[in-house]
């Protein structure tokens, strides 16, 4: 007589969500139909923000920022994304999992959401950037404002227009964006010991009003080229000061020698002259 046993397979423990959900390698990293009018300013302004985003109270290795990179935000709709002109994150390494350049920023695969987002107004995106667009249907992606405010809860949202040089800023307060006030012309972000403001100056040989990072006290955070230029200027000044000091010393010595010679002519003791020299 044959005995049959019912075999019940043991199920493996469920995998953590970050191992089963799509990663940046699985998701599209561009969309040629994305609205907006990219121009030189949309390249240079985010570059200046990128170069000067240096939170003083954070390890530089745990500070990340990006421009024009897909930002995936919704687990229920993993293909939905926004593409900020620039955003900064703290507490996140510069490489994805410490190994690879990012193709996109996939929030469910990252340890932190963006801390600050900057949008540069274009005629085609202004209504959405400023939250004027009517809330979308359940099966349509929400606006940038809704994503930054309600879903990702990004603490600071900045909007800047190069056409009017108007700066608008919003801070997350009680789950909603509230307009921020300027302090001495800057937007203070004490959590990262930085402030953001407008600066009239030349960047990449273009003179205009730029949006850039300052310390809380209002000192400019220099871009690497500015820092190198300042170091070169300091070296030139130091060298010039050294030359002037040598010239002054030589001139003083000549005066002493002339005085000594005059005293000798008057018959003073040579030993006294040596002490004088």
UniProtKB/TrEMBL annotation:
Keywords: Coiled coil. This is Putative restriction endonuclease domain-containing protein. The keyword Transferase does not apply. Residues 25-199 form the Putative restriction endonuclease domain. It comes from Nostoc punctiforme (strain ATCC 29133 / PCC 73102). It comes from the Bacteria. Pfam families: Uma2. Residues 235-276 form a coiled coil.
């Amino acid at each position: 007589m044959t005995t049959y046993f019912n075999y019940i397979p043991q199920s493996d423990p469920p995998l953590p969500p970050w191992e089963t959900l799509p990663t940046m390698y699985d998701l599209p990293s561009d969309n040629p139909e994305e609205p907006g009018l990219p121009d030189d300013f949309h390249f240079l302004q985010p570059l200046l923000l990128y170069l000067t985003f240096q939170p003083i109270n954070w390890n530089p290795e745990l500070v990340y920022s990006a421009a024009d990179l897909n930002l995936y935000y919704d687990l229920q709709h993993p293909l939905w994304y926004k593409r900020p002109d620039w955003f900064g994150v703290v507490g996140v390494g510069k490489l994805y999992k410490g190994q690879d350049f990012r193709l996109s920023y996939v929030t469910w695969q990252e340890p932190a959401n963006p801390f600050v987002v900057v949008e540069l107004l274009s005629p085609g995106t202004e209504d959405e950037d400023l939250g004027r667009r009517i809330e979308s249907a359940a099966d349509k992606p929400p606006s940038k404002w809704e994503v930054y405010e309600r879903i990702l809860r990004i603490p600071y949202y900045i909007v800047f227009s190069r056409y009017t040089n108007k700066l608008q800023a919003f801070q997350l307060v009680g789950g909603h964006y509230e307009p921020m006030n300027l302090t001495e012309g800057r937007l203070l972000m004490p959590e990262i010991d930085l402030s953001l403001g407008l600066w009239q100056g030349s960047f990449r040989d273009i003179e205009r009003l730029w949006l850039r990072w300052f310390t809380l006290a209002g000192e400019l955070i220099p871009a690497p080229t500015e820092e190198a230029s300042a170091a070169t200027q300091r070296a030139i000044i130091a060298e010039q000061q050294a030359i002037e000091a040598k010239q002054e010393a030589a001139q003083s010595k000549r005066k002493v020698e002339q005085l000594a010679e005059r005293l000798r002519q008057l018959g003073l003791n040579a030993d006294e002259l040596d002490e004088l020299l």
